[in-house]
Amino acid sequence: MRAKSCSVLVLLSVAFASAQIPSLGWCPDYSPMADFDIDRFLGKWYESEHYFTFWDVVNRCVVTDYARASSGRIYVSNEVTNRITGVKRVIGGHLELSGKGNEGKMNVKYATTPISTESTLIVLETDYDNYAVIWSCYGIGPFHAQNVWVMTRDRLAPGTVMQRTYGVLDKYKVNRAFVFKTDQEGCALLASDINASQGIMPISTVPQAVGEQQKSAQHPEAAEAEEYHIPNKDNSNEKTIEPAPIEGYNLNKDVQ
């Protein structure tokens, strides 16, 4: 009984830290999207809605960039803005496909996240151009914790796109009671927006964009271990350092 209680506490702790909703029972058996095209999926995605998290108290303007290096490895950068301080924070990591064949199952590892650095994400459905519904579940015995993200190509997606995502959630019986709308109103122009307009890779792999010494393009893995704090661009006293292009990196999809 004591061991079981400890397992429950561990699950609840991990679920809380990972922004998941804990529940009784086993993880639902959801199949990843078939014929998933990772190259079409690459690019910028804005977090439109997701299960409520503790970090929603301070986080807003959440955006994720996926890009493939010349080595073939796929890198991920998550950028969020602190609603209290206005400081932007970027966390870098990498992604590996882990499904059978061309299934939309991805293992993502963030080098700078202190808790639960690695997770398995299931792409339930995406049309690549407008929306993606991503789900995860972590289980310990008869207990589990779920998370869901509704990602869109537009920062503020039109209602027709959101209705399609709700249809996906209902199709998989994902409980919408805990879905929380990400604050994307009045967000400043992201450094990654500037990079994309110049054909440069995501910000998490361009240290020079935040005043750090530029790392060699031959060793992009070194960049993912860095965590950057970017000053609020609304502050007119801040000096903007334009990033320089780095060869050997390809942002496969140019997203508006």
UniProtKB/TrEMBL annotation:
Q: Which GO terms describe its molecular function?
A: pigment binding
Name the InterPro entries on file. Calycin, Invtbrt_color, Lipocln_cytosolic_FA-bd_dom
GO terms for biological process? lipid metabolic process; response to reactive oxygen species
Renumbered residue ranges of the record's region Disordered: 209-256
Q: Which UniProt keywords apply?
A: Disulfide bond, Signal
Span of the signal peptide: 1-19
GO terms for CC?
A: cytoplasm
Q: Where is the Lipocalin/cytosolic fatty-acid binding domain?
A: 36-154
Source domain of life:
Eukaryota
A Pfam entry, by short name: Lipocalin_2
SUPFAM superfamilies, sorted: Lipocalins
Where is composition skewed (Basic and acidic residues) in this entry? 226-241
The name on file for this protein is Lipocalin/cytosolic fatty-acid binding domain-containing protein
Q: From what organism does this protein derive?
A: Pyrocoelia pectoralis
